[in-house]
Structure formats: C-alpha cells, structure tokens
Design a protein that fits this description.
Strand content: over 45%
Distance between the termini: 52 Å
Helix content: under 10%
Number of strands: 41
Length: about 725
C-alpha cells in the first residue's frame, strides 16, 4: 500500500509539469443557416459558395513538418436540427480510382481513402465522436474515450443515425455530411466545441490533419483538437427518443446433447431516451444479439482464457465509463459476462437469456460523468442455471487539464425471477477507484487504481492495486507498471485470468526517422515483465528485445528475441489436446525468436502474420498465425486465415501439429446489402464451423439478417450443432 501511496503522489506531481506546445492553428467558425441543406454531395447551396473554408492541412505521416501533398478544404454550417459538414479533397493530378476495402459500413485501416471529423462536444479533449466517409460514400462512426490514446479507445461498433453523400470528380472528390444534433450529446447553451479533421490518401501514403499532430501519435488523438465556434448558443436537440424493436425466428439442433428447438418467434427491443442533451438512458427487453458476428476461433496455447471484445450495441454508448476501469488483464467489469452462464450438466459456458436491462450514462456537468446499469438474466432449470442480477455504477470526475478520477461499484446477485427469490449470501461485489493521467500535450499518461471484491466468508487478500506511468515523445518512449493482485480477489463480472501475484513491467524504446526513400521509421525496443508471489518467488518472466522497421507504404516488420520462464501451478498440457500434462510445481525457461509483419495494405493482395520458432517448455515449437487477403475492387474480399503450431515434446508428453484454417468471403453488393461466409477448421477442438450471413440495411441503422451456422466432426462430417436465425430490426426516431 505504501508503494501505491507513493505512486499516487508522484502521479499528481506530474500534472504540474509544464510541457512545450506546438503552434496552434486558427480556430474554425460555423455558419448559421435559416434553410436546411440537402445532403446530396453536390455542394450547390449558397453557403458552400461563400468564403469561410479552412485548408492548409499538415502531414502527420510520412512526416509532420510540411503541408500535405493532397490538400483538403472543410466548412461547417448548422441549423436548428443538423450540423452540416462539407469537405473537398483535392488531388495534385487527375484521378478516378481510390482504395476502399469494401462498401461495408465502419471501414478502417491506413489503406482506405477517406476524410474524418473528430468532434469533442464537451471541450475536455478526452471523450468524443468520429464520423468518416470515403470517396464511394461508405460511412463510419465511432465513440472515443480516454483521448484516443490506445487503439481500444476507438470504438467502431457504436452505430447511430446520420447522413452523408460523396461524389468523385476528375481532380477532387467531395463529401457532404448531415449529423442530427439528437445523435450527439452536448451541454446546454454551448457556443463552441473542439474539432479536428484528418484525411488518409492511399496514392501518396499520406495522413494529413487540420491541426498539427506529432508523427508519433495517432491522427485520432483528441489532445490536438481546436475550437469550433458557433455565432450563438446551439439549439437544444429537443426530444431525443428512439425505439429499436426487433422480431426474430430461430431454430437449432444439438446432436451432441440430443435435443432440438423448433422454429419459434421472439420479440423484443431497445429504447434510447435522451435525458437532456448530455445524458442517455438505454432500455432493453428480451434483447437478441443474433446479429453479432460469431467470434473467429483461435488456437489457444495459453494457460488462461482468451479475451474477446464486446460488440453488442446496447453496451456501447459511453462504453469507456464502464469498460476502462482497471487495465488489460485486471478488468473489474467485462460486459460479455452478462448473458453467459455455466451449464451444470456439461461444465461449459453457454449463452443465457437476458430478460431486461437499463443503462444510464452521460455528463452531469462539464467535470462530472455518470454511468449506471442493471441487467437481469433468466433461469434455465434444464441446465441448472439460476437467474442473475447485475448492477454497475460508475462516477467520474475530471481533474486538472485532461485527467480524471473514477469510482465503480459492481454487484452480481443470484436472483430467480420466476420465484422472486434472492438466494441469500450468493453474491459477488466489487468497489474500486481509478485515476487516469493524460497530460495536455499527450506525452505523459498513466493509470493508478485500487479495487476490492466482497464475498460471503472471504475477507483476506481480496484487493488489487496498480500503478503505471508512460512517456511518449517523437524519438523516445518509456514506461513502468506495477501490479498487485490478491489471492482471493475474485471479480466474477470482470476479466482477471489469474490471481495471487505481483508484477513489474518496464519498457523502453527509441525511434529513428531516416532520410530514406522507402523506410519511414525504425528502432529498437525492450519490454519486460516479471511476476512473483511471497511463497514461490518468481513464477513468470518474459523479456523481449525487438526491432521495428516501418515503410512509407504502411508495410512494417518487427523482429524479436524472447526469453521466458513459466512455473506451473497446476498440471498443464502445452498442446491442450488431452496429452500427458507437465507436472504441477515444475518450472521451465526457454528462448525463441519472433516476427510480426504486414505488407502494403493498399495492394489488392496483402499479407500479415506473426510467428515464432525456438524452445517451448521442455521441447520446441514453430508457430505461425496469419491472413492472406485478396481484394477485388471494393465489392469482394477473399481471405485465408491460417494458424499452424508444430509442437515437439519429449515423452511422456505428446507431439502435436495444430491447424486452424479459415477461408472467408465477404461480398458487398451495395452500401446496404452484404453477404459474409466463413469456414473454420480447428483440429485442436476437432471441429469444422460454417457461418454464413446476409445483411440488408434497408433503412439507416435498420437491418434484416439471415444467419446460418453449423458445426461438424471433421472425420465423418456428422453435425454437432446447427442453427438458423432470421431477424428484422428497425430504428425509429420519435
């Protein structure tokens, strides 16, 4: 605890360090309209013919010291209901073709041409929105948390209603956007926001922004947004109410357990209610998440469970309020635990029905944010499952310039709704406090927290603490993290694969930016982590020395040398195929080489993968995981996922050759009609999976889904489980 107190003291001191700032560009001014704009991509309204455009975009890749080669111009206007954005993307030479991976919403990646706007409606440079459009009119939107510092803070799974059109001309392309004020959250009577714009141009391998951003940061970082002024306080968004009902029909057959479910209908839906312009209430009754794409399988050689991110729409508004407490492997709350329970007849985790839920999130004031959630799952006597009630509350306070302090309370209670019976003592609770540090210029970041769980009869060693500080400059980066996880810390609604250890993890790196025709940057890095506990001493180590080379083409390769030590707390089969396990209480030190690479993603054929070769526990392993993707224009993507592990162990352990092969075809006929099919063969779990899905987006954020999935035994092609789902949902604004 003394270490944590010292860490917190050092943390608050860092907020008073003065950082040098780059010159700031002029602010931007929106134009007030009396008549609405027709969003058609033509820019023929009078407002777009007048002065007031911003330009002079600055490169952030491949360098950050010059004006963009492919320049852009942007202008903003608004009326009582919409924010309008017009953008003209100029080309130095005539051009008709652009790179787009598909016509599917929510494109991402450096290979996609596009223009995006970053909007910070509360002027905190920490939370906000991104809206983007590519030359073929494909949209994407995302919610941002924690200033966009990490890739996980960029949430493309969030969807909402807005409108845009694009048009391609000989020497430029145009985008016109209309965003309803009801889609955004902002404080009453505000007359300014923070914004930035960034463009990715594939022909020149260029990223450019209106506000200068140092080349060591992502273009989405909100620390570098600048003022957008409105000539008068913005109008209130008015009643912001949406209903999202659905109707579905599903049937399934489980040959392994000998039962089937006949085709039956189900109904339910969500509601979104704006409580003022800055607060949102989400309600759900009998939700159905069949539109969520099946998680792609992976070969698991780890001793602990694998993390899959949340993609269900209901949980995504202001997701950082709930999901960003803790750190990667010490998460107090993980929403994918809701709707999953243990089938007592098989010992497997299975999907469990959610009966209803309510979720409140948003801004109370400029400095205070609040989140609260309650969800109830149903009972399933055939599987020995009793319903659970999940309650989560979070309160966050902005401190200093961009940092914040948050507290979280979590309660999971066993509750049978049919009997209205609270099972006494069967609860799991957690209380925690987090401090997130973000300096004004984004060079310093940190996280400090203490959490504790509460269960009946368990009082000792139920807490966890963490202190982390990182520095990131143009050439140099460094960080240090320390964690303590108690033996009896048990967040049943969180993601903490192991307990009872302390961990220290330093890292350091240096980046060179050569004057080269091909190489953009390169440099060495060192990462290390050591885990120990008082009774056993050191139980795990991983020390990695790597070297990164990134090219102007967005291709990159990282080579690494690794040394690892693992102590086994329980018998473990390194192949996870049922072979003779290595003995409990034994330790292994082994070394191996690694590679991580990706080719130019703008090419029609692109490759990426990771591999390692060397020692593995008491034997050796050669492993490769990668994907080859062939893009046929923007209408078809054909890819092949491959994972192969060649494991050789001395007797009595068994050797293994583990394959996971997954061809995938993704067809985007139009911007509203998609068909995805993938096959996965996994010999580690002796399974072939086929999943095919047709999606028709017949109206904004409204879809018809048809999904078929089947699982087979590879040897006989006898079916294990199969299911068919058809679902219709509609987004209705009231």
């Amino acid at each position: 605890m003394n270490k944590l107190i010292l860490a917190y003291s050092f943390l608050f001191f860092t907020n008073f360090i003065a950082f040098g700032q780059r010159p700031e560009p002029a602010s931007m001014y929106a134009v007030r309209l009396e008549e609405p704009v027709t969003v058609d991509g033509r820019l023929d309204e009078g407002v777009w013919q007048e002065d007031g455009w911003i330009s002079d975009f600055i490169q952030t890749f491949p360098s950050d010291t010059s004006l963009a080669v492919a320049q852009s111009k942007v202008k903003i206007a608004y009326d009582d209901k919409f924010l309008y954005i017009a953008a003209i993307m100029l080309n130095p030479e005539p051009r008709e073709k652009y790179v787009s991976t598909s016509l599917r919403r929510d494109y991402r990646g450096n290979q996609n041409d596009g223009i995006s706007i970053v909007i910070d409606t509360f002027n905190d440079k920490t939370n906000g929105y991104i809206f983007g459009v590519n030359p073929y009119g494909v949209q994407r939107e995302a919610m941002m948390g924690n200033g966009g510092l990490q890739p996980t803070d960029f949430n493309l799974a969030w969807d909402n209603k807005w409108y845009s059109e694009a048009a391609i001309h000989e020497d430029h392309w145009i985008v016109e956007i209309g965003i309803p004020f009801s889609t955004l959250r902002y404080k009453d009577d505000t007359d300014n926001w923070n914004v930035n714009f960034y463009r990715i141009d594939s022909k020149y391998s260029e990223k450019s922004t209106w506000t200068p951003i140092p080349k060591n940061f992502n273009v989405t970082h909100m620390a570098f947004t600048q003022n957008l002024y409105f000539p008068e306080p913005l109008p209130k968004s008015g009643g912001n109410y949406s209903l999202i009902p659905y109707a579905a029909m599903a049937t399934s057959n489980n040959s392994l357990e000998g039962y089937s479910e006949p085709l039956k209908p189900s109904f339910g839906g969500d509601a979104k209610i704006g409580l003022g312009p800055a607060m949102n209430l989400d309600l759900t009754v009998n939700p159905d998440f069949s539109q969520v794409e099946v998680d792609e399988q992976v070969t698991n050689l780890d001793r602990f469970e694998i993390f899959f991110p949340e993609r269900r729409q209901f949980f995504l508004e202001n997701v950082d309020l709930f999901a960003d407490f803790g750190t990667d492997r010490i998460r107090p709350f993980f929403s994918r635990r809701i709707g999953v329970d243990r089938d007592e007849s098989t010992g497997q985790n299975v999907q469990n029905q959610i009966l209803y839920g309510a979720r409140l999130s948003g801004k109370l004031t400029d400095d205070w944010r609040i989140g609260a959630m309650n969800m109830q799952t149903g009972s399933d006597p055939l599987r020995g499952i009793t319903g659970k009630n999940f309650s989560v509350a979070a309160l966050q306070r902005k401190v200093f310039n961009r940092s914040n302090v948050g507290v979280m309370l979590i309660n999971r209670e066993t509750l049978d709704m049919e009997r209205t019976n609270l099972v006494n003592g069967d609860h799991n609770r957690l209380a925690g406090i987090d401090y997130n540090l973000f300096s004004k210029d984004n060079r310093w970041s940190g996280k400090f927290f203490y959490h504790r769980t509460f269960e009946k009869g368990v009082d000792e060693d139920t807490g966890t603490g963490h202190a982390q500080l990182a520095f990131n400059d143009v050439n140099f980066n460094a960080g240090l993290a320390y964690s303590y996880v108690g033996e009896n810390y048990n967040p049943l609604v969180g993601y903490t694969p192991r307990t009872g250890y302390q961990r220290i993890a330093p890292e350091i790196g240096y980046t060179f930016f050569p004057d080269s025709e091909h190489i953009n940057r390169h440099g060495p890095g060192f990462l290390s982590e050591t885990l120990w506990n008082p009774s056993l001493g050191v139980t795990d180590e991983l020390h990695t020395l790597n070297y990164l080379v990134q090219f102007h083409s967005f291709a990159e390769v990282t080579l690494s040398g690794n040394n690892q030590y693992t102590y086994l707390f329980f018998p473990f089969d390194p192949t996870r195929t049922g072979g003779e396990p290595l003995a409990e209480g034994t330790g292994y030190r082994y070394s191996y080489l690694g590679i991580d690479f990706r080719t130019d993603p703008r090419k029609a054929l692109a490759l990426q993968g990771t591999g390692q070769i060397g020692q593995y526990y008491s034997g050796t392993m050669a492993n490769f995981t990668g994907v080859a993707q062939w893009r046929i224009g923007y209408r078809a993507n054909i890819s092949m996922n491959l994972s192969y592990s060649r494991i050789r162990l001395p007797e009595p352990q068994k050797d293994a050759d583990l394959f996971l092969i997954g061809p995938r075809i993704d067809l985007t006929f139009t911007r509203s009609l998609f068909w995805t099919t993938f096959i996965q063969y996994n010999n580690q779990i002796d399974n072939i999976n086929i999943n095919t899905r047709i999606q028709w987006r017949y109206a904004p954020v409204s879809d018809l889904f048809m999904v078929y999935t089947d699982n087979y035994f590879p040897g006989t092609f006898a079916s294990k489980q199969r299911a068919f789902v058809m679902k219709l949902n509609y987004w209705l604004n009231l």
